[in-house]
Design a protein that fits this description.
Largest sheet: 7 strands, mixed
CATH superfamily of the largest domain: Bira Bifunctional Protein, Domain 2
Mean pLDDT: 87
Number of domains: 2
Strand order of the largest sheet: 1-4-5-9-8-7-6
CATH architecture of the largest domain: 2-Layer Sandwich
Order of helices and strands: HHHHHHHEEHEHEEHEEEHEHH
Helix content: 40-55%
Shape: rod-shaped
Structural class: alpha+beta
Radius of gyration: 43 Å
Length: 369
């Protein structure tokens, strides 16, 4: 019987209105509407109190108390159409029902939330925390640090210089005179006639010699810029490590010894070096340094292009004119300088075939290091 009684009760305002319109007794429409509203309110209250999930409770709240299509809202909208003598009574009945249902929704929501919290697994605060995932060093950074560590054992300190440089230090101080092809605007990123993005970290050696007195042992890692066409082995921005040693009686033998120690530190105890004659405006004599190919043990492979050697650095004894520019007497002091291509070294160490990978910020690539 209880199920039949509940099924007989209206669940929507339209059902209440339909039943009141069907009343057959004289003046029976208003009493039928009053009874229908009470039945609707009682049914809503029972359903709200019986809701067993927060999602189900939300559906009931929207059905009965929703601002747009709620059943109570529909009844209140119809009140002005009723005779004036019953508007107050039925309006009051609907408002009272609305307050009662709202209170029931809040209470049931509180109970369901408490039950869900109690059922949730407890947290054992004695367990050790979970460390967040950490990133890794960029391969270029790894190589620079390894190079710096190798030279630090030989007494070389790390110094830095500006990437936006003046022609004085980028050209004049390095014995690159006016009219030299290296000063052409097409070969540089010029900011003004006398300011540019540095093309080499050799600018730092001039600044250091100008501001400090020998003995000097420094390395200067950093970015340099040249307007090269970007491809698998060239980029307009790359990295160098400049090295400089100045003291009394420094010889070419010292240069070869230092570079040999560095090569064995970075590429293994079996690494060999060779120096080939070359030319740079700021060193005299000048040389290119090659390292024996670690991939084929000097036998020849695709990495070394069949030669057994890999070009690694430019180097030489500091030209006397560079000393004079920096205010150092070339008759009392001598020194050597070298420039290492960090990107090239990194590509060889990690067998990377495309220099563009270093600047694309692809996590799939960077996560390998």
């Amino acid at each position: 019987m209880a199920d039949e009684t509940q099924n007989d009760r209206p669940r929507t305002w339209e059902e209440v209105l339909k039943r009141s319109s069907a009343a057959t007794a004289p003046d029976g429409a208003i009493p039928a509407m009053r009874d229908g509203l009470r039945a609707l309110s009682d049914l809503a209250l029972e359903e709200i109190r019986a809701a067993d999930t927060l999602a189900g409770l939300k559906e009931l709240r929207d059905h009965y108390l929703g601002r747009k299509r709620g059943q109570i809202k529909g009844g209140l909208a119809y009140i002005p159409k009723l005779p004036s003598e019953v508007r107050s009574e039925l309006g009051g009945l609907l408002n009272a029902s609305k307050r009662q249902l709202e209170a029931a929704v809040r209470e049931r929501e509180k109970d369901l939330s408490a039950s869900r919290a109690a059922a949730a697994p407890s947290i054992d605060i004695t367990l050790p925390g979970r460390a967040p995932p950490l990133g890794s060093l960029h391969p270029i950074t790894r190589t620079i640090r390894d190079i710096a560590q190798s030279f630090a054992r030989l007494g070389f300190s790390w110094v830095s210089g500006p990437e936006v440089e003046s022609a004085k230090y980028n050209f004049d101080g390095l014995n690159i005179s006016e009219g030299h092809p290296a000063r052409d605007r097409e070969e540089n990123f010029m900011i003004s006639s006398e300011v540019l993005l540095r093309t080499q970290t050799s600018t730092v050696q001039v600044r250091v010699m100008e501001s400090r007195r020998p003995p000097l042992r420094i390395i200067a890692p950093g970015r340099v810029y040249r307007p090269d066409t970007v491809d698998a082995t060239h980029h307009f921005m790359f990295h160098q490590v400049e090295g400089l040693m100045v003291d009394r009686d420094v010889t070419f033998r010292d240069l070869k010894t230092v570079l040999g120690i560095f090569a064995r530190d970075l590429f293994g105890p079996e690494a060999l070096i060779r120096l080939r004659p070359s030319f740079f405006p700021f060193t005299e004599p000048s040389a290119e340094m090659d390292v024996s190919c670690a991939f084929c043990d000097g036998k020849g492979c695709s990495v070394c292009k069949g030669t057994g050697w890999i070009e690694m650095a430019g180097c030489g004894m500091v030209d006397p004119s560079v000393f004079e520019f920096a205010g150092i007497d070339p008759d009392e002091h001598s020194g050597f300088a070298f420039g290492l291509g960090v990107d090239r070294i990194t590509m060889i160490r990690y067998q990377i075939k495309d220099i563009r990978l270093f600047t694309e910020n692809d996590v799939r690539f960077l996560a390998q290091f």
